[in-house]
Amino acid sequence: MKPLRYLASLACGLLFGIGLALAGMTRPQKVLGFLDVAGPWDPSLLFVLGGAVAVSAVAFRYILRRHSPLLAESFDLPTTKPIDRNLIAGATIFGIGWGLSGYCPGPAIALLAAPDTEALYFLPAMLAGWWLFAFVAKRSR
């Protein structure tokens, strides 16, 4: 069963990466044009967002009726609901990084298929940020 899960994960990741590339989310100029509402705003990524929300709204309704996923024993859904200081801090840092660079982690990883100079600087910085978070979180426990 595990090889099938790995294959399904690979297929989903490839599909996700192709979708990001087709939507233009791997091009920082496109993303920054969407985020810059005070400048020459590019609203085209609203269609990407709308499509993702529509597909998710329909799919989750059917998927969560099942007793378990097809390739796992149980669903792995978030259990915490409160908006706390860590969530706000993480969202703020994520938003600042995305706004400054135009890269989000998913599209940045998708760029490994066709990296550019900016991505080659961003990806190690992103990995360093993940490591720093894990280090700080481990020490604060």
From TrEMBL:
What domain of life does the UniProt record list for this protein's source? Bacteria
Organism of origin: Paraburkholderia metrosideri
Keywords, sorted A to Z: Membrane, Transmembrane, Transmembrane helix
Protein's UniProt keywords contain Transmembrane helix: yes
The major lineage groups are: Bacteria, Pseudomonadati, Pseudomonadota, Betaproteobacteria, Burkholderiales
Membrane-crossing residues? 47-64, 87-113, 119-137
Protein name (Swiss-Prot/TrEMBL)? YeeE/YedE family protein
Q: Does the keyword Transmembrane helix apply?
A: yes
The record's annotation in InterPro entries points to: DUF6691
Q: Which Pfam families match?
A: DUF6691
